[in-house]
What we know:
By secondary structure, the protein is an alpha/beta fold.
Amino acid sequence: MSKKQSQTNKNRTLISIVSNRDPYFQTLLNNTEQSGPLLALLSAERFQNVILLSQPYLKTNSEQTKVFINKLYPQIKTEIFDFNVEDPINYIEILKEMRKIISSISEKYNESEFYVNASSGTPQMHAMWILMAASGEIPAHIINIREKRHLSNNKLPILELDLTSPEFPIVRKNFTFKSNSDANIKDIQTNIQQLGIIADHPSMQKVLEQIAILAPIDRSVLILGETGTGKEVMARLFHKLSNRSNQNFIAVNCGAIPKDLAESVLFGHKKGSFTGAISDAKGKFKEAENGIIFLDELAELSEAAQVKLLRVLQTCEIEPVGQSKTEKVNVRIIAATNGEILKLIENGKFREDLYHRIAKSVIHLPALRERKTDIPKIALQVLDKLNKQLNKSKRITPEALLKLQNHVWSGNIRELENIVENAAIFSRSNVIEEEEIMLNTNKNKSAENSIPVPEMGFILENYLSYVRKNLIEKALEISNNNQSEAARILGISPQAVHKFLNTSK
């Protein structure tokens, strides 16, 4: 392990499969007892947390290992996760189980710097750890403990695999779409990959499931989400999966249209209908004929344009500016805006009848900070694209990926893309280090400052109850209402989640 890494004592978490040599094993040479890989590793390096992955046939070893860790290193928090792999040499079975566990670990220990012990388990397990770390599925260091017989004066007991080395191949995960619908999953996967969508987090799996169901149904849809969450990309996925995929997809940023020209831009105009109208224009709706029109920043439309748009939805007719005769249009509308649209309706700034016409189905896109486990993979994808453009082969360290994963990202994917691109462009070497990730810390501070300042009349228990309620609801959303999974994410008992659900009814 490098000098820099060995001096780093921030919250470090070791993940290790328990082997049949843990906690101790008998040597064949002189029948003496030696520390197993895990205890040997802990004697050489310091960690704040140890996560033991317990295979079905080694549960006793796992419990004994935890006992010895607690006895020898009482300052270390040790936790056992079931590693339900029946066939220890089946690559796919191992990978599926690792992904399931790592998702829970990443959510629960989200501020940790992860180290994976590749000294324990089968060679197939070692290979899968390497693939997961290299592809960004977990921003982790891969380490090995050398046995005493392999040590010499010039060798350290810990050996780390340098995934940023140019000799190491670039590994990226293909997206796997899990669906309960009757959708053509292979076709969906192909389009998702073409659009460069990273969506492994359960909240994004839910979004893609909704799109797969709604895309073939010819109805209007409203996508809600913060700026930079990828609303247009999701609208393009709608188009590709719809029965209008061979027709036009027209994207319109309603916020960029001058309010006095909105009707002309959307519905067209006749020559001479206003100053500057030197020729006929058919407008965006006619351009999208038989296809899909994407109305981004819908809430920015002027009141007059809202009235005209409502008429289009009611009658499937448009009336170009300067023309008294209406024209039929066959267009499917996908609209998008942020969650503030409901407040605008309350304040009378957006028509409620228009909202209900467009929002026949509503899809909520999660903010990037709500799907943190996707962040390293998105960052690596951005870096791959830039490497192709610049004909470079830059890599990024696990520490840098962890720094990206723990950022708030109020600008979401768009902000992440800018940060990674700038880091790659200005980095003088082929390896992007943690200190080269220049984050806008003011955004993180604003999130920290959201904690209220206590004043007279402040009731701590009420505030903590509010926070507890929101965290449990968020965990249930992430885990698709799986109470046991939500409990593991939060580090509480399933009974506590069950009790909350009963008392909140």
